[in-house]
Amino acid sequence: MSDLDLLGQLEANFNRRKVGITEFAASKEFCGRVLYPRQRLLLKLFFLEDLTEEEERILDLWIEGGRDNNEVEICPNIRERIQWCKDNGYEHFREVVLVGGRRCSKGFITGLSISKKIYDTLQLQDPNAYYGIDADKEIYFSVIAAAQDQAKDQQYADVSGMVNSCMAMQRYI
User: What separation, in Å, do the N-terminal and C-terminal C-alpha atoms of the chain show?
Assistant: First the structure.
C-alpha cells in the first residue's frame, strides 16, 4: 500500500484527547456550531456534563413542569439519573427520547450527538476490542424514524450533514 499514511496515523493516535460535547459542538477545531443556551443544556444533559448555575436554574424550570411556564418538560428525577450514570461509569445516556415540535432543533441536537459518538469511536485504537465486539463485525450508528423516507430524508440527512461539516471528521470521510 503506497498511500498508507503511517505518519498521519501515528500523529492522530498521539494527539487524541478527551473533549466534551460543548467543545466538540462549538469549537472550530471540531464542528464550529453556534449553540443556543437551551441547546447547550440539552447536550450537556445527554453527555452527563456539569452545568453552570444558569443552566441549573433552567433545569429547575424544566423539572417544575414545562406546560405552566412555556418551557421544556423533563423527567423530574433527571439529576438522580445523571448521578447514577456517572456513578456507574457511563459517559452519556444510552437512550434519549427527544419529543418536540417542528423547528425545535431535534435534528441539529441529534446530529451533533451522533457525530460526537462517531468521533469518540474513531479515537479508539481498536473500537471492536474496546467494546468487546468480534473483529470481523462492523460498528453501526443507527438512525430511526417513524417511516423510512423520514429517516432518510430528515434524520439521516441531519446526521450526515453534521458529520460531513465537522472539521474534526474530515480526515475520516
Answer: 19
CA 53 to chain centre: 22
101-110, long-range: CB within 8 Å, 24+ apart, which pairs?
Answer: 105/36, 105/39, 107/154, 107/155, 107/157, 107/158, 108/33, 108/39, 108/158, 108/162, 109/39, 109/42, 109/43, 109/46, 110/155, 110/158, 110/159
Each residue's pLDDT tens digit, 62-100: 998 755 566 678 889 999 999 999 999 999 999 888 887
pLDDT in tens, 15-25: 567 899 999 99
Euclidean distance between CA atoms 1 and 3, whole angstroms: 6
Residue 58 backbone dihedrals phi, psi, to 5 degrees? -65, -40
